[in-house]
Amino acid sequence: MLRLYAFITSTTSLLLLIRYGGAAAGFLTQLALARILSPESLGLFFAAISLAAVSSTIATFGYPEIAPRFISRYRTRGRLRLFADFVDYSRRDSLRLCTAMSGLIVVGAVFWPDASRQESFVFILTALWLPILASLYINSGIALSLRAFFLAYSPENFLTPVGFLIVVATLVLFGQRSDVLILLAAIVTISSGLTFGQWMLLRPLLPQGQETTANPTDPRNVRRWRREGAPQIAVSIYTMLFADITILLTAIVLSRSELAAFAIALKLAMLVGFAVQVVHQVIIPDLADAQAERRLGQTGDTMRKAAIFPLVFTLAALVAAMLLGDIALALFHPDFVQAHNVLVLLVGCQVLRALSGPVVQLLTTAGAQLENALICIASTLFLGLGIFVFVNSFGIIGAAYAVVVAWIFWLTLSSIALYRITGLRCDILSLTGMTTFTRNVT
Questions:
Q1: Residue 163: CB partners within 8 Å, gap ≥ 6?
Q2: C-alpha–C-alpha distance, residues 69 and 369, integer Å
Q3: pLDDT tens digits for range 377-411
Q4: Angstrom distance (rounded) from CA 179 to CA 269
Q5: Is the distance from CB of 29 to CB of 164 less than 8 angstroms?
């Protein structure tokens, strides 16, 4: 148990160092962008980045999320041909979907009413970025399944923001003209190079040669991958890209300047939430192995050890947001102080996530993809409805109210579904022994 706790804490520390090192670079970059771009241009930049993230996640067809479940099963049972085919089909299906989605975005960019020339070019470039981001996400899902955590996290969470900071700093230093299109082109170029490098490092970890020359893949396996992967699109958007989908929804009802303030507060809050996400993802391979060996109900120690750090971290962050949030927001722009209470509420949502435990990961590991997806879809609709209702009544703070209500809705339904499907609970009360963890699950 001590070795398990040491692994979780050491790996989590490394990944948090990577993420918050990247976050520091991102913080400095956004600080510079807020100074050299108008709030309207900054809002356009955030909208383009969010559209690319959400669209490319849809284009992955849920393969990164189901990768730990299937790769763990195939490695455990020595079925390396299926392992190799899973990787091949995930990339092939994603490319097809990327092509279709990129075409739709290009058409929308060209024919969108009242779109300026700059806005059209920005979203055309965004469309060209989709296959690159989708490949990055699939590579990361495979690397996570193989416990290659550094390879899974560092390209997107550290190297990309650091590289982009260097570009922005260079532009500022030499007094070059900076606009949204130039900045987006820079981040697309960086992302392309890192995605290629990530794949080259990942390839030696995959089955090679004679290991992949067995009988052809049963079409039923391909249909199963697609059937289980498709629902994960909704789960991925809601869990991994919550900030992006929320920014896109609020962009409809908030002014550009209010959107920029809300987006900064949301991104800061989601940095806090990354600590919860990392710990939950670190234990995914162990949960997947336990599911493959039919001992998921015996993972209480694993989840208990993984529950301590997120709760302590998020509570500390909540106190910091209350006391220092206005100062942090003012660093970006004096007008962003209006989002102080927004920041506090959004960080409070991360505390709720820590209290609920790895409920989403357990649903995926247990094969409850459809239930997980339906809950996330319902929560997304609930979020959108809340944004339109609360923003009209309360302004920018109303967007935060909508997020809080949507998260309570999401976490509550997920916990109920997990218990009904598996007999397991993973909230902090059950993990600390205050209530029952499992209902006779083996």
A1: 190, 194
A2: 11
A3: 899 899 999 998 998 888 899 999 999 999 999 99
A4: 27
A5: yes
